[in-house]
Specification:
66 residues, mainly alpha
Length: 66
């Protein structure tokens, strides 16, 4: 639900699996933790398939044990 509307090539599954967030895709944004939101934002960014990405503190709020 969060990202599936923008996915026409099946990439949501590929990136969400790589980021370990496939289990949260059906949840509402307000129910996600800071780290989960960061991963969803990263997944949405990767879906754009740009030539270059610039990140400012991409690991902020991420759980080091995840």
């Amino acid at each position: 639900e969060l990202l599936e509307r923008v996915d026409d090539r099946g990439d949501v599954h590929k990136y969400s699996e790589a980021l370990g967030i496939e289990h949260i895709l059906s949840r509402k944004l307000g129910s996600l933790s800071g780290g989960e939101l960061q991963r969803v934002a990263l997944c949405a960014t990767l879906l754009k398939e740009a030539d270059v990405y610039f990140f400012d503190e991409p690991s902020s709020y991420l759980d080091i044990y995840e």
